[in-house]
Amino acid sequence: MLQAIKKTVLFSLLGISIGLLNSPKMFSQEVSASSEIHYFLDLVTTSSRSEQEKLLTTIEKNWKPEFTIMAIEVMYFGYTSDIGVKMALVLQKKTGQNFGLDFNKWYEYLWNQEQKILPDYAYFKSQLHKSLDAKFETYFQGRQPSSLIRMDEIRWGGVQQDGIPPLRDPAMIPASSASYLEDDHIVFGIVVNGDARAYPKRILAWHEMFVDEVGGIPVTGVYCTLCGTVILYKSEVNGIVHEMGTSGFLYRSNKLMYDQATQSLWSTLEGKPVVGPLVGKGIQMDYLSVVTTTWGEWKERHPETEVLSLSTGHRRDYGEGVAYQAYFANDDLMFNVPSVNGKLKNKQSILAIRLPEYPEQPLAISVKYLKKNPVYQSTIGDTRFVVFTDKTGANRVYNARNLNFKKYDQKSTATDARGDVWTVYEDRIENSSGEVRPRIHTFNAFWFGWQAAYPDTKLVK
Known about the structure:
The chain is an alpha+beta fold. It contains 13 helices and 29 strands. The strands form 6 sheets. The protein has an 8-stranded antiparallel sheet.
């Protein structure tokens, strides 16, 4: 099971990191950092017990709130050694909190306070993490001023860069050749310029990203299994195609992407750089539509569709429900967030709507609610929209403008209050008079992940 595998990788890499951290040659000598930063860096590189004790005493004597995140990260990476235990004792004494070696509790405590980090905290973070992957140094080194998100909330997810390998230009096969799929298997369906594709969950959960050209357009599809989001983006912005990958880091349990050219970190939810040289340059990838449905329903709607081949170039058990089986089977989180909201269960699926023209009005609608109400209409700002939900629970959202819809056959036909019949397409709805209403790009997500990213979101349930 992938959760168990990820934990094994996490613990083994942590073990590797301790050995690397204990190498005196690990840290860069080219960049100067404050003596306070080196209290912590020296602590994890020295093998001298007496020197460790001196450094722990110095840290405790000179304690300030800005030390908390570094102490937690040292404890996190040194949990198998005396350093981790002793750092936990210092943390407990200086903060008054008694969480022992429970990293999630320490992170939750920290993240519910105003961020307090040293001016060169990013240097500490770059040096601490580069033992896991040399590329990690670039993510943080010199980039603290550019960060749009709390740097102390950027947490290693247990894998190296592209350690969960994206599918790049993956092999596709016609629907008739997809004998490995059953009709009730979950797929993520897209149509771009008439080019229909299906990406089965059973495959994509092992890779969490695909980079492809669909309908003549370069696209990036990102699946954050932890937060239940599948989002499709146009990879090209202002004439530049950004080659995206999996950074290995998380922000509020949602994966951070990176671009190969600058190694900037990108928000998965918003499709824009949040740490690095691309921040502040007006770069944001446009959303495209994706629908979570069953293979049987998708191929009935799109018999011409292509679907991922099992020949991915990787050896995985692509059986239905194998990847992340334990994680999806309960409501526990693998990586925590600042707080959870009990209005819904953590992993209850919601339809996430955040219109570009009204970014401060995010909306979450319970998928269970939508299954009971296959026609749902509301407004965000001046935009009136309608959600059509089919029998598989798949949601499609359209700009309704001045219309009021009364019926949806949960297939391809909807009827408005005037009695006009509309055909439901992936990119639009259209009536016999040629009136068109465009698709609004939305996606599904787990409630906890969406609420963590947008704590003030409105919820319909």
